Amino acid sequence: MADNGQDTKSARRQGDRKLIMRLASYAKPYWKYFLIALLFTIILSGFNLARPYLIKTAIDDNIVAADKGIIEANEARQGIKILGIIFLVLVIGEFMLGYVQTYLLQSTGKKIIMTLRNEAFSCVQRLPVAYFDKNPVGRIVTTVMNDTEALNEMYTEILVGFFENVFIMIGILVIMFKMNVRLTIISLAMLPIIAFVTILFRKKSREIFGEIRSRLGRLNAFLSENLSGMKVIQSFNMQEEKYNEFEEINTKYYSARQRQIKLFGILRPLMDVVRSLILSILLWYGGLNIISGKLEFGTLFAFINYINQFFTPIMHFTEGYNILQSAIVSGNRLFALMDYEPEPEPSDDEREELEEVRGGIEFKNVWFAYEEDKWVLKDVSFKISPGESVAFVGATGAGKTSIINLICGFYENQKGEILLDGVNIKHIEKATLRKNIGMVLQDVFLFSGDIETNIRLFDKTITTEEIIKAAKYANADCFIDQLPGGYKNPVTEKGSTLSMGQRQLLSFARALVIDPKILVMDEATSNIDTETEGLIQEALIKLMEGRTTIAIAHRLSTIQNVDKIIVIHDGKIEEMGSHDELLGKKGLYYNLYMLQYKNIEETLQKNLA
Amino acid sequence: MAKQKRNGQSMLFSFLKDNRWKYITGILLLFIINILQLIVPRLTGTIIDGIKEGAIGEQALLKYSAIIFIISILVFILNYLSRIQITGSSNLYEFLLRNKMFSHLLDMSMDFYNKRAIGDIMALSTNDIGAIRMAMGRGIMLTANTVFLITASIYIMSTKINPRLTLIAFIPMPALVYVMMRFGRSIHKRSKKVQESFGHLTRKTQENISGIRVIKAFVQEDNEIRNFQELNEEDYEKSMALVRIRGIFFPLIGFISSLSYLVVLVYGGNLVVDGAITLGDFVAFNSYLGMIIRPVRFIGMLINFMQRGKASVDRIDELLDEKPTIYDDPSILKEGFESERFEGKIEFRDLTFRYAEGEEPVLKGIDLIIEPGETVAIVGKVGSGKTTLVNLILRLYNPENRGALFIDDIDIMDIPLEILRQNIGYVPQDNFLFSTTIRDNIAFSPIPIEDRTVKEAASISQVYSEILELPEGFHTTLGERGVNLSGGQKQRVSIARALAKDPSILILDDSLSAVDTDTEERILEGLGQFMKGRTTIIIAHRISTIKDADTIVVLDRGRIVEHGTHEELVAMGGTYSEMYERQLLEDKIAVGEYGK
After folding, report:
1. A217 phi and psi angles, rounded to 5 deg
2. CATH of the structural domain A357-435+556-609, one choice from 1.10.287.990, 3.40.50.300, 3.30.360.10, 3.40.30.10
3. How many angstroms separate the CA atoms of B84 and B22, rounded?
4. Residue A29 pLDDT > 60, yes or no?
């Protein structure tokens, strides 16, 4: 992001051009509206010019004429009345055109922002999980919501404004040149100053805009995180410290804004100074020439008027230039998000359709690292037959969750192959893959809505009956029925008053309702009491029928019924086999098992004695 | 709208009061600038007249030209100063308001967070506060300029030219005022709707991204895109409702103000024809009217700024007016509590609790005494009220009435919150970690914690060596919600965080669920030493975790159904012994199989 001196300068300029073109491309479908708006703008400026003319006519042709006795007073009155009517018509026309013009511009602006936002949101949906590991939620939200909003002005002000101002400027220039070439050149001599100043300020204003945007993102990221963790903050009396942290971030945002105010406090009024400079030079130079008889008085008078008019579009240009800078900053942030490599999907000739998923999974020499060269999985190979149940066992951080992450296609393995029913999962569309997997994850995330939406999520094809059935299966119905609103009981993101155990039951129901071929459970029963867990285990036995089941659990007792246990240690498979086989081996599993059960065995023996 | 003084509004007033000199200076400067800017055309006129009549020499010409330039420099400087005063103040207000909002949020209790969405609050903090800044900066500047220009022109027109004509020119003004009021209200209402729908959209985005892993796991991306598009469409509609009204409003103001021209043209023209006023007056009047018309057109923009700002003030007030339900009663004495360390006695007296009025109680008639230094285990089915019980000890919620919960024989309502929570080390179920270094996550206390203590806490919770294996050890920065740690590691860091503050009461809410049994045992062993002299409450599901507790409390549907030591409860043959038998059976099967 940082500027790296000279060589990147032209690249950046080219980048700017590309970016502007890209932003403009969103306006393209609406070019007709913009054209109409532009046309109306021109007509409106024509109307504006016509007004003084009407008054001039009233004065010259009626009032003065009556005064001089050229026409009768009544005739003059009649003439004024007609002019009044014309004026009225003009004003009404102005009103109507003005309405249509504002409406067209604003509505297309809003539409473009809506499109951009939809696209940004869609892109976010396709981003790989790794992106979300690195980027705080609040920052992504800021880009989708606020950076898009910041582009609005560009579409409503600049696009039409640019052409309008070019027209006006060209018009005035032509008139000025026609009247007096030398005076025109003198007036224009100052324009490079303006160009110079604007460009001089560009880097600065770009930098400040960038700072404002990124600090706003930081503010939102902080809010999003700390509001989520408010319970912990309050439990640990950290309100004051968190307040200070927030104030610091807020101060940085404040000072960036303050810098912007100061910059614009110089930039905008500076244009006025340049205009006055031109005006005084014109007055002085023109005055001298009049005195020496080289210049007509009327010309100077007209020039002074035109210079003032000439500056209006120039002011608009500089203003527009700033809006553009701000848009470039926001656009860069937005497109950086949208251009981020999405989750890899198979290309058309790679893609293989799965007729009916049976649920066989095979890892062939899989290597995987979240960060380069820090291998989390090292040469892992195993095979799970359709309908088989498998448990992964190992110390925390051994790589169990990573295996599940890979099966679900959340991350891509660097080496080796992962096969589903013999097909490399890299050749399967992510959606197809995941539709066949029901996941019960460690952290249960709840969406605001009600219990029902948290089971069906956003799939409206799932009926209430199916939801109730799944909830019953997962034994979640006992607590749901006790809620005042039952299945319609409201739930918020923070989970309101649902306990972790209740959330886990909900997430079971969530996984079951889609009737998956493969069921994946990562520490799914850790917050559930033994009685409920027993009920779930019972349900699971039914469920495992005809499904491939993959479980991670620390309690070895909960996984003894599985067909195969895979022991992972430090990213490698240490042992594999059934419970009995592994115990017989007296290896790592045996040791883990002994650690867990030595006490129990003691008690058992005590009981026997 | 409620008439009582609202939080945000009173803050706005007191800010304006405190910064009145900045605003007054800024506005005065604006007036001076306006006057100077009126002088320039006059001066230009004088020069031109002078040249025309040949009354001006080269010297004088240079002098006047220089004066014009000098005035413009002056205007430049004053402009800068005035902007700094006014926009600077609006920026300062944004800063203060956002601080105030966050500090208010820090005071808000859990019941508030159970119903408010984070995305909504984010929208308030950016979009709405931004709208207020605009109103207080550009809005006020525009107002000052408009008021000045209109007043000056009216003054000149009525005194220097013709009061009657001035009066006539102002015939359309009541209509203008009416339109402004009428549309102002609509703009206010519709702006509020726009801000609201922006909030909804932000909420959707925030929630979606927070839950993106679930969205992906359940292939909900397309559904979510559709949902987002719907909300986005709604936001568009709301914005368009505002655009439609603004689209009429701005040109309408232009139209009504142009009617003044019309009146002046027709009536004034006739006056000249009748000889009631001079032609020169008529011309001058017209040009002054032109000066008014421009600022009158600003009024549209101005009202837009102001009403949008006001809508946002309303919205933020709704947040600031929410009263925290958990706070220190002003009557409680803090002196006695200074640096006091609790003994750690906890007593529940017939405590009943429900999260919301009219709901089924979550806890019913809880009677329980936990002696200092005792270790109490709480077991019970999912949703039986275990977490609620410990939440009450932390006073994350208030007990329904006084006299129901005592710490060291003092009613919990009489204990300053800060001291209460400083004494409690809490390991929540969801082990939330912050995106800062591991060290700062463990040393999470207002009282500085030494490195040694941090390391000790990490060792007891069996995470020390794993932390050292990380690239930067204790200084490794975690991702949001600690994404770069495994579930078990997060849980252990969260335990270390509770231990590091050296609490007199330790609460472990199902905090060993994500660690393997071997680690659990080692943690419990280490804790055994640590827990000496501290009251400990452990919520757990596994008998192995809790059987050594001094007392075991069994909760069922919000009631204590059993209470005693492991042996007593097993002998009692109730819920606990059933649970024990079940686990024993499971284990027996396991061990038995091995024994084969």
Report:
1. -60, -40
2. 3.40.50.300
3. 9
4. yes
Q: Counting Cβ atoms within 10 Å, is residue A469 exposed (0-12), middle (13-18) or buried (19+)?
A: middle
Sheet holding A572-577, edge to edge: A437-440, A518-522, A548-552, A389-393, A564-569, A572-577
Most A CBs within 10 A among B126, B237, B271, B288, hence the mutation to make, goes to: B126
Q: For residue range B267-308, list pLDDT tens digits in order.
A: 888 888 888 887 777 877 777 777 777 777 788 888 989 999
Helices (H), B156-220: 163-169, 173-210, 212-217
User: Which residues partner with B377 through β-bridges?
Assistant: B538, B552
Distances (CA, A) of B11 to A82, A258, B16, B107, B327: 56, 21, 9, 17, 21
Backbone angles phi, psi at B231, to 5 degrees: -65, -35
CA distance B421 to A237: 6
User: From the candidates A250, A319, A556, which should be mutated to test the interface with B, based on the most B CB atoms within 10 A?
Assistant: A250
A235 interaction partners in chain B (CB closer than 8 Å): 394, 396, 421, 424, 426, 428
**Interface predicted TM-score of the whole assembly (ipTM), two decimals:** 0.89
- How many CB atoms are located within 10 Å of the residue A21 CB? 9
Cβ-proximal residues to A186 (8 Å cutoff; 6+ apart), any chain = A278, A281, A282, A285
Residue with tokens 């819920």: B575
Residue ranges covered by each domain of chain A: 19-126, 141-342, 357-435+556-609
Query: pLDDT tens across B415-470, in order?
Result: 998 899 999 999 998 888 999 999 999 999 998 999 999 999 999 999 999 899 88
How many H helices and E strands in chain B?
Answer: 23, 10
Query: Which residues of chain B neighbour A288 with C-beta distances below 8 Å?
Result: 58, 61
Q: Is residue B556 classed as helix, strand or coil in its secondary structure?
A: strand
Of the listed ranges A187-201, B62-76, B408-422, B428-442, the least confidently predicted one is A187-201
Rounded to the nearest 10 degrees, the angle between the axes of helix B140-155 and helix B279-320 is 150
What is the structure's pLDDT at B159? 82
Helices (H), A513-568: 530-544
How does strand B405-407 pair with strand B410-411? antiparallel
Alpha helices in B336-450, H assignment, sequence order: 386-393, 417-422, 438-442
Nearest to B71 by CA among B41, B112, B101: B41
Q: Write down the architecture of domain A141-342 according to CATH.
A: Up-down Bundle (1.20)
Q: Which two tokens stand for residue A437?
A: 């997997």
Q: Which of 529-568 (A) contact B at CB < 8 A?
A: 529-534, 554-557, 560
CA B449 from chain center: how many Å? Answer: 29
Q: How far apart are CA B247 and CA B241, in angstroms?
A: 10
Which chain A residues are closer than 8 Å to B579 by Cβ? 529-531
How many whole angstroms from its chain centre is CA A291?
A: 65
- Site from B91, B179, B218 to mutate, A interface, most A CB atoms within 10 angstroms: B218
CB B361 within 8 A of CB B555: no
What is the token pair recorded at A382? 């195993």
The residue written with tokens 């204003």 in the block is: A205
Q: List, as one string, the DSSP characters of A16-41.
A: HHHHHHHHHHTTGGGHHHHHHHHHHH
By Cβ distance, the residue of A231, A238, A284 closest to B444 is A238
CB A381 within 8 A of CB A363: yes
